[in-house]
Structures
1.
Amino acid sequence: MLSTTPASGKTVVTTGLIRGVRNAHHRVLPFKPVSETLLIEGGPARPEAIEHQCFAAGVPFQPEMAPVRTVVVGREADVWLFDQYVGRVPRLGRDMPALGTLPLLERDAISDAVDGCRRALLEDCDLLVSEGSGAATALTELGLVDIANIQTGVLADDVLVVARASNGTAFTTVDRVMGVLRERFVNVTGFLLNDVPGCLDQHVEAGMDAANRNSVEFVGVMPWTDFFDNRPRYRPPSQGCDEDHQHLANLVGSLVRIGTTLG
């Protein structure tokens, strides 16, 4: 799951997809290679997005689900690989650490860890749903290595790109994002519009045009939902979130046709 801009709703769509796959009686696990979190005693906290996705999947958290964690320090971010501090990097917007500025040895360690975690998780599930970090192209356009998204996208069998319809640049960035991802051998198979405020027919037509231009499937549009609502912090997952997760599953499932797509 990658996006055209930060805060496009990857976590919303990913959480709903995971719950829907679980409802269809498939074994599903979440995977977010790079996560923004908070610093607690002894290292970074467990990422909140992964907590919700584990709850939606009905599985306990495993460290392999979130190997790289970043802690915001002003305009920079401290990078941790599991419980080991790696270094400090520039931060470009929300949840967008420039990991490509790390020395080669550290970059290779992160890449190897991401690949190893992915392989280990795949052995225990039917489907691994991976969420990227920040925007899919913002770092690569600045000439920086975007480990958070590009490696994840290259390793994935199928990539769904999410754009936020309420963002005025949603349609102007789609073609550029698709081009950058394909240059890096990312197999983009679908495009989805999230956070649609109204005029569904108008957004469906524009989304289909964008998908046709880029030879991908237009998955559909998701209406605005206040579950995450671009908040700085998510509420902790609990039994009270179960109904919310099911609502997201219904929204995503009506688009992705969960169950039939997975055979």
2.
Amino acid sequence: MTIKRTTKRDTILKGLMGEAYHRALMAFPDEDVVVGSRFASPDGVEALKALTEMIPRSGHKAVGEERAWGRRLARRFGVDSTYDEQSFVVASGGQSGFLDFESSKPEKISPDIVSLFKTVNAKKGGVLIVHGWTMAESLVKLGKHS
């Protein structure tokens, strides 16, 4: 999904994520939900800022269950053949469906987020699979239609 580079792109991203959370809320009203996506650059990770404990994250060594969720997402995205479960990086061919978003304030992107992308080769179609959880009570707020 590409978000056009306009002055309203942050609002559009927020709206799209609100709709995604609303759909998750309708499907799983009383459950915690894992949310994940593929990113070719650090800018798009902003979409997941509402999640609890994003994986991967700087200074955190992913445990077995976290790596298993990464593998499941890679398989679901059809990129498991070039996926590395330690780094959460898809080496190539991973851009057939990723969130393409360019931040209007790139200087505000956390250096910790930027460092996660040091081994992502976007020119070869590389991406980083990022996921995290939203608890049921948070999902009610995130998925609420105004």
3.
Amino acid sequence: MPEDHLISPGTILRPRVLRDVSGRSVSIPPAAGQGEDALVHLQFRRFAGCPVCNLHLRSFARRHRELDTAGVREVVLFHSPADELRPHTADLPFAVVADPDKRLYAEFGVESSPRALLDPRAWVPILRAIAFATTGILTGTVRPPAAKPQGGRLGLPADFLIAPDGRVVACKYGAHVDDHWSMDDVLAQARAWRGERSRELVGV
């Protein structure tokens, strides 16, 4: 990971309370009574209706029970206004947070770049996501994105796994639009952290 990224494993994040698009409070790390022993997987996505983002998040929604079992809370950020996000994310079983001013994007060093779309590794995933979105739009199951999404179309993804004490366990800054942790990646990171913590507790 390049040295100029603002956040790296071991970074301690200050506690914060966000509001999801439904107005519910989202504490990072979780506050008392909100699963305070849970890890938080904080995803930075792009704009409301982003085809690659939507397809990616569907994979997390389908396996959400596995996240619960692993003690992982999912929190997803978009750089779109809440009103634009709600129709696209209403059926997701985890918190979605609007950050249209990109304040958290700036704080975490999550950037935009033409390589989000121009990197050849992104082309097949983009075509696959567009095909999925087009089928959904034609059948009325997917809403099209805004013609000119706030924050633009060149955002890069990023993933952060945050421990209950606010320490960043692991993170990934994407090199292109489809360069993000898969569901299996998140579960593996969570298992590794819990295994390490168990060994520390027993003094191994």
